[in-house]
Write a structure and sequence with these properties.
The protein is of the alpha/beta class. The chain is built from 26 helices and 8 strands. The two termini are 20 Å apart.
C-alpha cells in the first residue's frame, strides 16, 4: 500500500529534489512577472465589471463616469507600486509587509498585517478561480450551474502543479499570462482603430435600458450618489490586489534580488494601468451594460429580458464587439482570460506559503509550515491555502460578486500599516545617516511612502465604510480570528520553551534517578514477550518484574504454570481485576510504585505487533495503545514499546535479507 501511495505521489509531484538544488529554483524576471504579477494583471478582467456593476445602480448616466473612476484607481495603483519599490529595496528578505510592520511598529502590528495578508491570499484564490469558472461557463454552456464544482477542481489541479515547485509552475504559467497580455493588447489596438475610424460596433448589451434603483432616479446626486461613486471606486481597487506578493517573494528572484523585484513591480504597474484604462474606455465607447441582476435592472424596449438571457462579463462583451465578424477571436480571448484568472491564484500559491513559513519560524504558526517538501516548495502551506479556498468557494457558490465584497479589505490593511512602517523606517534611518546624497534619497523615499500611506489609508476608510454591510465584516472577523489564533500559538510555543529550558541551575537537569524500576507487561508467553524481557534485562534496571492482569482465572493459572516451567529469572506479578479491566489495574500499580519511591524512574515495556496492513491494526495492539495513552500522562514513567514485526510486514522496511535476519532474529 505504501509503495502504491509513494508511486502516486511521485507521479503527481515528481521526484524529490536535493536541498542544494534550491538555487536552481530562483526565477528570472521573465518568469517572475507571470508568477507574482498574474493576480494584479488578471484583476483587469473583473475590476471594471465591479465598477460598472456598482454604478449601474444609478442608471445609464452614472456609468458614463466609469473611466474617471478607473483613472482614480490607477492613480492609487501607481502610488502603491512606487511605494513597494521602496519596500523591496529596504527589506529584501521576503517578509514583505509583515517584516516592515514588525521591525518598525512592533510584533502586534506585524501579526495584524500577517493576518490580513493570509485572509487576502485565501480570498485571492477563491475570487480568481471563481471568476475563471464564470468565464469558462460563458464560453462552455455545459458548465453553467456547475461553476462551484468546476472551480474546486481547478483549485485541486493548481495545488498539484504548485506542489511540483515554484520554477516548474512558473514556466507552465508564463505562456497563458503573456497570451493574456497579447489578447488585451490586440483588443486595445483593434478597438482604438475601429473607434477612430468610426467602425466600432456597439456591445451586445448596448441596446438594453438600465433601470435605476429607488433613490437614484435623478442619477448621482446628493450624499447617496457620492456614496455610490465611493463604493464603485472601492470595488475597482480590487485591481491593486497582488501588488504586495512581489515584496513577499523577493527571495525567489535571481540576483540582484531587490533590483529585479523592483523592475518587476514597475512592469506590473505599467501594464495594469494600460489594461485597466483601455477596457473601461472601450466599454464606455461600445455602451457595455453590466449589472448584478440583469432580469431586474435591464429591460428591452420597456419589457423584461427573456428568462434564458445570459449576461457575459465586460471583457467578453468588449472582445465580441471589437472582433465582430471573427467569433473565433472572441472564443480565444475568453479562453485566455479564463486561464489568466485561474492562474492569478498562483500569486497567492507563491505568497501564502512563503509568508506562512516566515510566521512559522517566528512561532506564530505551526512549525510544519516552515519546512520545505520533496520539491523544495512549502507543501504544507500550499495545501493549507487550497483547503481554505475550497471551503470559501463552496460556501459562496463561486459567486464573484459575493466574494469580492470580502476581498480588498485585507490587502489595504496591509498596505496602510506597511506604508506607515516604511515612513518610520526612513525617519529612523535619517537620524544616523550623514551622507548628503543618501539623505536626499531617503527623504525622497519617505515622501513616496508618505503619499502611499495617505492614499491607502483613505481607500481603506472608503472600503470599510462602503463595503462593511455588504460582506466586508466577514473578512474583518476572519482577520480577527486569525490574529487571535496566531497570538495563541506564539504564546503556546513561548510557554513550552520556558518550560523546557535548562535554566541557570543545571544540577536538577543532570540528576539521575536513584533507581530504575522496570515493568514488562505480559499477556501470554510468546516470542514478543521474550524479546521484551530480554530488552528489559539488557538495560540492567535496579528492579525488574513482569506484570500480568488477572482477567480470566484459568488463563492466569496456565500462564503461571508456563512461567514456572521455563524457570525465567524474572518474578511474575498478577494484578487482580474483578471487573475484567486491563488499563486501570496497570495504572494503579504503576502509580503505587511511584508513591513508594518518588525518586525512582519507572520504565514500562510493552510488547507490540508491527503489522503490514491497515486492517491488521484493527485486530491487534488496542490494549497497548490505550495503556500507552494513559501512561504517557503519568509523571516519572517512561513507556518503552518493544516491536515485533509480523510476516505481513516483509518487503516494507527495505532492510530484509538473510544477513539482516541473522543479526536481528524475529524481524
Amino acid at each position: 500500500m505504501s509503495e502504491i501511495a509513494d508511486a502516486a505521489k511521485r507521479l503527481l509531484v515528481g521526484r524529490p529534489v536535493r536541498s542544494e538544488r534550491l538555487g536552481h529554483t530562483l526565477l528570472p524576471k521573465r518568469i517572475a512577472l507571470p508568477v507574482f504579477a498574474s493576480d494584479a494583471l488578471s484583476s483587469v478582467a473583473y475590476a471594471p465589471d465591479e465598477i460598472l456593476l456598482t454604478l449601474a445602480v444609478a442608471g445609464l448616466a452614472a456609468t458614463t463616469i466609469s473611466p474617471w473612476v478607473g483613472l482614480a484607481v490607477v492613480v492609487v495603483l501607481l502610488t502603491v507600486v512606487a511605494s513597494y519599490r521602496q519596500n523591496v529595496r529596504a527589506y529584501p528578505s521576503g517578509g514583505g509587509d509583515y517584516e516592515v510592520a514588525t521591525v518598525n511598529l512592533g510584533p502586534t502590528a506585524g501579526v495584524g498585517v500577517a493576518s490580513a495578508l493570509m485572509v487576502d491570499y485565501v480570498l485571492t484564490v477563491a475570487v480568481s478561480i471563481s471568476s475563471g469558472a464564470q468565464y469558462a461557463a460563458s464560453a462552455i454552456p455545459a458548465l453553467r450551474g456547475h461553476e462551484a464544482t468546476f472551480a474546486i477542481v481547478l483549485v485541486v489541479l493548481l495545488t498539484l502543479v504548485n506542489l511540483r515547485g515554484v520554477k516548474e509552475s512558473g514556466k507552465l504559467f508564463a505562456i497563458p499570462v503573456y497570451l493574456f497580455m497579447l489578447a488585451i493588447g490586440s483588443t486595445a489596438v483593434v478597438g482604438f482603430f475601429r473607434y477612430v475610424t468610426g467602425n466600432l460596433p456597439p456591445a451586445e448589451s448596448a441596446d438594453l435600458e438600465l433601470v435605476a434603483e429607488s433613490g437614484f432616479d435623478q442619477g448621482l446626486v446628493g450624499i447617496a450618489g457620492a456614496f455610490l461613486v465611493a463604493r464603485a471606486f472601492a470595488s475597482g481597487c480590487a485591481a491593486l490586489t497582488g501588488v504586495e506578493a512581489i515584496s513577499n517573494g523577493v527571495p525567489a528572484f535571481r540576483k540582484p534580488k531587490s533590483r529585479n523585484a523592483a523592475t518587476t513591480l514597475a512592469l506590473l504597474g505599467g501594464i495594469s494601468t494600460v489594461m485597466m484604462l483601455v477596457i473601461l474606455f472601450l466599454a464606455s465607447a461600445t455602451g457595455v451594460h453590466y449589472v448584478e441582476d440583469p432580469h431586474e435592472q435591464l429591460t428591452l424596449n420597456g419589457e423584461p429580458l427573456p428568462a434564458d438571457y445570459v449576461q457575459h462579463p465586460v471583457l467578453g462583451q468588449l472582445t465580441e464587439s471589437v472582433f465582430s465578424g471573427a467569433p473565433f477571436v472572441f472564443v480565444a480571448v475568453s479562453v485566455v482570460t479564463g486561464l489568466i484568472l485561474v492562474l492569478a491564484a498562483n500569486t497567492a500559491f507563491n505568497g501564502f506559503p512563503v509568508l506562512g513559513s516566515i510566521l512559522a519560524k517566528d512561532g506564530y504558526l505551526p512549525r510544519q509550515l516552515h519546512t520545505r517538501g520533496d520539491r523544495l516548495a512549502f507543501s504544507n502551506g500550499i495545501i493549507t491555502l487550497a483547503v481554505a479556498a475550497i471551503v470559501l468557494i463552496w460556501a459562496f457558490d463561486a459567486q464573484v460578486t459575493r466574494l469580492i465584497q470580502l476581498y480588498i479589505v485585507g490587502v489595504f490593511v496591509s498596505f496602510t500599516i506597511s506604508q506607515l512602517g516604511m515612513v518610520r523606517h526612513w525617519t529612523r534611518a535619517l537620524r544616523t545617516e550623514h551622507q548628503p546624497r543618501e539623505r536626499a534619497r531617503m527623504r525622497r523615499s519617505r515622501v513616496v511612502n508618505s503619499v502611499g500611506l495617505a492614499m491607502t489609508g483613505t481607500v481603506l476608510v472608503i472600503v470599510l465604510v462602503t463595503k462593511f454591510t455588504h460582506g466586508a465584516w466577514i473578512a474583518i472577523l476572519a482577520m480577527g480570528v486569525v490574529f487571535v489564533l496566531m497570538r495563541a500559538i506564539r504564546k503556546h510555543y513561548d510557554t513550552v520553551r520556558d518550560e523546557l529550558a535548562l535554566g541557570d541551575d543545571l544540577t536538577q537537569a543532570r540528576a539521575l534517578p536513584s533507581r530504575v524500576h522496570a515493568i514488562v507487561l505480559v499477556s501470554k508467553i510468546h516470542r514478543p514477550t521474550m524479546r521484551a524481557l530480554a530488552y528489559a534485562r539488557a538495560s540492567r534496571p535496579s528492579v525488574l518484574e513482569a506484570v500480568t492482569v488477572g482477567v480470566d482465572p484459568e488463563d492466569v493459572t496456565e500462564l503461571m504454570r508456563e512461567w514456572e516451567g521455563l524457570d525465567l529469572p524474572v518474578p511474575l506479578r498478577v494484578l487482580d481485576s474483578p471487573f475484567r479491566e486491563i488499563t486501570r489495574p496497570v495504572l494503579s500499580y504503576v502509580r503505587s510504585v511511584r508513591r513508594e519511591s518518588p525518586r525512582d524512574l519507572v520504565v514500562v515495556y510493552i510488547p507490540e505487533y508491527v503489522v503490514g496492513h491497515w486492517w491488521e491494526q484493527l485486530l491487534h495492539n488496542q490494549s497497548a495503545l490505550r495503556l500507552k495513552g494513559r501512561l504517557l500522562f503519568t509523571p516519572g514513567v517512561v513507556v518503552a514499546s518493544v516491536p515485533w514485526q509480523l510476516a505481513s510486514t516483509e518487503g516494507q522496511t527495505g532492510l530484509e535479507g538473510e544477513g539482516f535476519r541473522s543479526r536481528f532474529p524475529g524481524m
